[in-house]
């Protein structure tokens, strides 16, 4: 997959949280970061380094205290709530360590859910769901099983399928191998790498796992709220 134009561009981004009148927590500082379309990137740092806050800003779940964020050239800070909601439902998706699957629903319905939330979806939902499950490499015999009977690796593949069903431009994976054994973790990373190389999805993996560094195109290290040069 060839590398394209910037999809994520952060300029002089800072993030702080006011905890009380006397206490402010400064989480991110002086963040300048560009991620190009088609890249497979890992953001690595220890617990408390600010990597989750950075992921939330990139995924438009949070906003910087100061600085600029452009997504595919568009200034995120000027978007309305509706525009941000549309962006998160079409162009940006997440895979979380804890899966966040609905255990009362089967695999198919879990993957279908993001399409139901899209206000302007005009495609064939069955085609999109089937395509996502195949790309996530989940065997068809499990498509109508309840998620609570699946293995950890299978549930992670369902989470990947749900994240890519709307065919997003950017996939953010938060500790995608954190709850998995090493073999299953490698399989999940292979699935993410396949999406990136064969489908062109830009993938950002946020993790503390240093072993991931040889699986990605580029490593961004964050420590104490800043990017280590």
Structural class: alpha/beta
Q: What best-fitting shape do the alpha-carbon axes yield?
A: globular
Q: What portion of the residues fall into strands of 2 or more residues? A: 25-35%
Rg over CA atoms = 18 Å
Q: Kindly report how far apart the N and C termini lie.
A: 26 Å
Give the count of helical stretches.
6
Please tell me the overall pLDDT: 91
Q: How can the largest sheet be summarized?
A: 6 strands, mixed
Order of helical and strand elements: EEEHEEHEHHHEHEEE
Major sheet: order of its strands?
6-7-8-3-9-10
Which runs of at least 5 residues are low in confidence (pLDDT < 50)?
Answer: none
Can you give the helix content as a percent range?
25-40%
What is the number of beta strands?
Answer: 10
Q: Any overview of this molecule?
A:
This protein is of the alpha/beta class and 229 residues long. Helices cover 31% and strands 27% of the residues. It has helices at 51-58, 81-90, 107-117, 125-135, 152-164, 182-199; strands spanning 6-18, 24-36, 40-44, 66-71, 74-75, 92-95, 170-174, 202-207, 218-223, 226-227. The strands form two sheets. The chain has a six-stranded mixed sheet with strand order 6-7-8-3-9-10, sandwiched between helices. A four-stranded antiparallel sheet has the order 2-1-4-5, with helices on one face. A hairpin with a 2-residue loop joins strand 9 (218-223) and strand 10.
């Amino acid at each position: 997959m060839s590398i394209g134009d910037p999809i994520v561009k952060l300029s002089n981004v800072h993030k702080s949280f006011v905890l009380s009148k006397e206490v402010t927590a400064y989480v991110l500082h002086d963040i300048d970061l560009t991620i190009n379309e088609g890249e497979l990137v890992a953001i690595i740092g220890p617990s408390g380094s600010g990597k989750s806050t950075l992921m939330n800003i990139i995924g438009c779940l949070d906003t910087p205290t100061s600085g600029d964020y452009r997504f595919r050239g568009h200034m995120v800070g000027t978007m309305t709530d509706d525009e941000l909601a549309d962006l998160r439902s079409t162009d940006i998706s997440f895979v979380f360590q804890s899966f966040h699957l609905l255990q009362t629903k089967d695999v198919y319905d879990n993957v279908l859910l993001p399409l139901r939330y899209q206000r302007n979806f005009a495609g064939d939902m069955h085609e999109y769901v089937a395509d996502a499950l195949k790309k996530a490499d989940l065997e068809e015999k499990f498509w109508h099983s309840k998620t609570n009977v699946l293995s950890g690796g299978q549930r992670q593949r369902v989470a990947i399928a749900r994240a890519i069903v709307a065919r997003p431009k950017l996939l953010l994976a938060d500790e995608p191998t954190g709850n998995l054994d090493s073999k299953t973790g490698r399989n999940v990373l292979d699935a993410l790498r396949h999406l990136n190389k064969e489908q062109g999805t830009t993938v950002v993996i946020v993790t503390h796992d240093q072993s991931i560094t040889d699986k990605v195109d580029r490593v961004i290290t964050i420590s104490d709220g800043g990017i280590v040069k």
